[in-house]
Design goal:
The protein has 405 residues and is an alpha+beta fold. It is 33% helix and 25% strand. It has three domains: 2-131, no CATH class; 135-258, Tetrahydropterin Synthase, Chain A; 371-405, no CATH class. It has helices at residues 15-18, 108-115, 172-178, 189-213, 225-244, 260-274, 278-296, 303-337; strands at 2-5, 22-25, 32-39, 62-65, 69-75, 78-83, 87-92, 125-131, 135-141, 146-150, 155-169, 186-188, 246-258, 341-342, 349-350, 373-376, 382-384, 402-403. The strands form four sheets. Strands 1, 2, 3, 4, 5, 6, 7, 8 and 12 form a nine-stranded mixed β-sheet that branches. Strands 9, 10, 11 and 13 form a four-stranded antiparallel β-sheet that branches. Strands 17-16-18 form a three-stranded antiparallel β-sheet, with no helix packed on it. It is elongated. It starts with a strand and ends with a strand. It comes from Lactococcus hircilactis. Residues 57-269 form the SPFH domain. InterPro entries: SPFH_YdjI.
Length: 405
């Protein structure tokens, strides 16, 4: 028993008038991986098969195969023929299996010979269809945190993640034999996802750890979807691809969250990194003092006790502030020595005293005026204010009030 491809020229007119039965796939959504073939227009008065028997396919019946589908002709639960090429096929009991592979690899014939029906007389004949399109939007989430060593924080972090992944059935015969529950006529991906979810999450953890070994920051994982899918395909190749005939196509991490302890550690490290900047640290110290002064007024023990406590640590704060200011001055001096300038001759950017391109010397900035002269409003004497504003006029002894010359 097998199938032969019907000539397209014979497709005109009513199929029910030309063949005893016409079989098509039952309703198949983008989440359906397996469905049974049903007879179309079975109760139509024009149909030639008036006494059809359930699960018995009459010799000469036509089977319709749509794109991206694998059709299985099954007898007593065993595969006796298949096709992955779209078109119309006629069932012939006297023919040998045709085995139309379509775009699938030739190795699928090896699967056929492993699962095929060894008998001759048909008993319970059925047609099934397997979806060869990419099955998208399969949801996952980690019930327990995953361990991730982040070199940036130099710490072991524990994260939870969730998202979606997609699969494609690459060996429909192995998928039918090892992944489809027995006696099922329709299977959605969610019907069988639970049994594979633990394997998926194990592979996810293994793949994520590969990123950790490469020194990737944990926050970058959401942008590594395609590479992550490749890692997981390699991990699951033996169990999923070879045994069950399916493989991972893509993995999309929708978000990553940290456990409370990991989040506290990240916040602490980020704050420490921020306070490594002397200017930021100085502002933090000044802010802490200001908050202490603000809280003093509401202290239940009175402002006196609050200020006494602040005074005890005041010297330490002052020393700490002086250290910060000294570090800030060093950083400013360092930055000043490393300041860049553009050569007025060739426009090359330089840091030394001479241009590295043409040898032109660094321009000397214009010096600030050495004198600031103002007149005394009382006597009109001209006074140099470069060293500061005097309280009294050095010429007349009156309180100094400056006026422009």
């Amino acid at each position: 028993m097998g199938i032969i491809k019907a000539a397209t020229s014979a497709m005109g007119g009513s199929l029910a008038d030309q063949w005893l039965e016409v079989i098509e796939p039952n309703e198949m959504s983008d989440q359906t991986v397996f469905t049974k073939g049903v007879m179309v227009r079975q109760n139509d008065k024009r149909g030639s098969n008036k006494k059809g028997t359930q699960d018995v396919i009459t010799d000469g019946s036509i089977v319709h195969v749509y794109p991206n589908m694998m059709m299985l002709l099954v007898d007593g639960g065993k595969i006796i023929d298949y096709t992955a090429e779209e078109g119309y096929y006629t069932v012939k009991n006297e023919t040998a299996p045709s085995m139309f592979n379509g775009n699938l690899r030739a190795s699928i014939q090896e699967s056929f010979f492993r699962f095929k029906f060894g008998g001759v007389t048909p008993q319970r004949q059925q047609v099934f269809y397997i979806n060869l399109q990419e099955i998208k939007g399969i949801k996952f989430g980690t019930s327990t945190p995953l361990q991730y060593f982040d070199n940036f924080y130099n710490a072991e972090l524990f994260v939870r993640t969730y998202g979606t992944y997609s699969i494609r059935i690459t060996d429909p015969l192995a998928f039918y034999a090892n992944a489809i529950p027995k006696n099922q006529e329709r299977v959605e991906i969610q019907d069988i996802n639970d049994q594979y979810l633990s394997e998926f999450l194990t592979a996810l953890n293994t793949s994520i750890n590969q990123y950790s070994a490469q020194g990737e920051r944990v926050s970058y994982l959401t942008s590594k979807s395609m590479a992550l899918a490749k890692y997981m395909a390699d991990v699951l190749d033996e169990d999923w691809k070879k045994l069950r005939g399916m493989e991972i196509v893509s993995v999309a991490l929708s978000g990553i969250s940290y456990t409370d302890d990991s989040q506290k550690l990240i916040n602490m490290r980020n704050q420490g990194a921020m306070l490594g900047d002397a200017a930021v640290r100085e502002g933090y110290v000044q802010g802490a003092v200001a908050r202490g002064l603000e809280a003093a007024g509401s202290n239940s023990g009175g402002a006196m006790n609050a200020f006494m406590g602040m005074n005890m640590g005041g010297q330490n704060l002052a020393n700490f502030s002086q250290t910060n200011q000294a570090q800030m001055a060093q950083e400013q001096t360092k930055n000043a020595t490393q300041a860049t300038w553009n050569c007025p001759k060739c426009a090359t950017e330089n840091t030394g005293k001479f241009c590295s391109n043409c040898g032109q010397s660094k321009p000397v900035p214009e010096s600030a005026p050495s004198e600031i002269k103002m007149a005394c409003n009382a006597c009109g004497a001209v006074v140099n204010l470069a060293a500061g504003v005097p309280k009294f006029c050095p010429e007349c002894g009156q309180p100094f009030v400056a006026r422009a010359l």
